[in-house]
Amino acid sequence: MTADNSFSRLDDDDYPAYTMGRAAEMIGATPAFLRAVGEARLVTPLRSDGGHRRYSRYQLRIAARARELVDAGTPIDAACRIVILEDQLEEAARINEELRGSPSTSRHRADA
């Protein structure tokens, strides 16, 4: 692996760079909280060769959002479901925006 390749991982939101302890510290939670959001299938950390959980920045943003909801009194299972739905809505809005901007969609609307 070249130095350029290893440094490019620093910019990759999906690269599992953080151990459970560090990830928990970064989002102000406990390792037990991260295990709970994993059990609720909100995030699925990758495993190191030694079997340790590793989290990406994207996963930490998702877990941090769930932590905000839990801190506001939402049960953890409900918080995880809310975050999943928010993520799906955001993705649907992004796809919708792409489709609105595509030339074939614009042309099709003009024919109607």
UniProtKB/TrEMBL annotation:
Q: Which residues form the HTH merR-type domain?
A: 17-85
Q: Mind telling me which Gene3D superfamilies this protein's record contains? A: 1.10.1660.10
In terms of Pfam families, this protein maps to: MerR_1
* InterPro entries membership: DNA-bd_dom_put_sf, MerR-type_HTH_dom
Q: Domain of life of the organism in this record?
A: Bacteria
Indicate what this protein is called per its UniProt record.
MerR family transcriptional regulator
> GO MF terms on file?
DNA binding
Q: Where is the signal peptide?
A: none
Any one biological process term the GO annotation gives: regulation of DNA-templated transcription
